[in-house]
Amino acid sequence: MPPISVLADYLLSVARSLSGAAEGLRIGFNKEGTVATRQHLLRLATDLIDYVARPEDKLMVWLPVLAHLTAIRLFIKWGAFEKIPTAEGTSTSFRELAAELKADRALIARVGRVLVANGTLARAGDDRITHTVFSKTLATETPIWAMAQVGFDNGLTSFSAMPKYFEQHGIDNEPNDRFQTILSFAEGAMGSTAWAINHSSPERLKVIMLAMASIDEYLPALGSYDLGWVVREGGRLPEQTLVVDVGAGGGQTLKKILKATPGLDPMRCVLEDLPEVVAVVEGQKDAELVGVKMVGMDFFKEQPIKGALVYYMRRCLHDYSDDECLAMLKPTVAAMSNDSRLLVVEMPVGTQPTRLQASMDLMMMAISGKERTMDEYRELLGKAGLVVIEAVPNTVGGTVIECAVDNRAR
Ligand SMILES: C[S@@+](CC[C@H](N)C(=O)[O-])C[C@H]1O[C@@H](n2cnc3c(N)ncnc32)[C@H](O)[C@@H]1O
C-alpha cells in the first residue's frame, strides 16, 4: 500500500471521478455513453483494489475470482441454476437442490456457498438460497450463460495448460498456427482449429454461437460509422450484392446492421460462415434475417460472392496470426472490385493495453490469434493489398476500419 498521504490523494481523485460519473448518469447518457460509464466505473473499482492491496493481499483477491468462475461453470454443467425457483420471494435449500440434482448435499452446499459469497446467488435464510438478477441469466440459454461456459472451457482451460504447452513448444515463437493451438493442446486435439473444437458437437456449437452475441455491447456493429452510402450507391447498381458479412456467426451483427441502415434490402445481403454454422442459422428461421442469403464457405478458400459493395468482417482477424490473416484476407481481396469496401471491425489495443484488452489478447493467444494496435492493423491490411480509407472508433473501444483495394498492389 502506498504512503497514507498518497493513498488519501488517490482516494480523493477516485471520489471526484465517481461523483462526475454520478452526475453524468443523472443527466442521462445515450446507450453507448452508459456502457462507457460502466466500463469507467469497473476500471475505477478494480484499480482501487490494486492500489490498496499489499502483495500479500493479491492472492486473496485473485483466488475468489477463480473459484467463482469454477462454481458458475459447475452449476451450469449440473443444471443447478434452473432448479432454483425464479418467482419473486421464492427460495430453495441446499438439501432440496441436492435432492433435485440427485447429488450430495454437502457438495452442492460448498459449491453453492462460493456463489453466495460472490453475489451470484443470494442467501435467503439459513442454508437457503435465492436467485439474483445475474444468476437468472445463467438459468436459461442466454448469451451470458454461453459466455460463462466459453470463458471457462476455452479460456481457463487454455490458461492452465500454458505452462506445460510452452515447456514443450518453447518460448522462441509466439503461437501462430491455427492447427497447433494452446486450446488444441489442452483438449488433446492437436491438428484441430479452435473452430473445429468449438463446433465438434451440436451442444458446443450452440454454446459458442450464442456466446458470440454476448459481448455485442463492447463492440457495436457499426458505432458511428454510417453505412447509409451503401443504400444510396446500391440504388444505382440493382444487381450488386450490397453487404457480405464474412464469418458472421449467428447473424447477430447483420441484424444490427440492417436495423441501423434504413433502406438496406436484406435480399441484397449475404451471411457467410462455415457450413455447420450456416446450417444452424438457416434452421433458426430468424424473422430479422428473412431474405438474407446464407452461404456456407471457408474464408481461407475462394470468396463465393464477387464484387459486393461491402465485405464486413467483425472479430475475425483477431482470431489469427499475421500470416494466417493474410491467407484469410487474400480470397476476399481477390473478390473485391474497385468500388468494393472491406469493413474490418475490431478492438485495436493501445500501446498500453487495458486490463481487459491484455486479457483478451491472452485468450486470443490460446487459439493462435492476437489483438493488434491500429498501426499493426494498418500494416497487416497494407500487406493484404488494401488501403485504409478511414478508421471510425466508437466510445467503447471498437473501431470500424474501412479499406479499399490498393490498385498499386494488383
Ligand atoms: C469470433 S467469431 C465472430 C462472429 C461475428 N462476426 C461477430 O463478430 O459476432 C468468428 C466467426 O468466424 C467463423 N469462422 C471461423 N473459421 C472460419 C472459416 N474458415 N471460414 C468461415 N468462417 C469461419 C466462426 O464460425 C465464427 O462465427
UniProtKB/TrEMBL annotation:
Keywords: Methyltransferase, S-adenosyl-L-methionine, Transferase. GO terms for biological process: methylation. Residues 237-385 form the O-methyltransferase C-terminal domain. One of its GO terms (molecular function) is O-methyltransferase activity. The active site is at H318 (proton acceptor). It holds the Pfam family Methyltransf_2. This is S-adenosyl-L-methionine-dependent methyltransferase. The lineage of its organism: Eukaryota, Fungi, Dikarya, Ascomycota, Pezizomycotina.
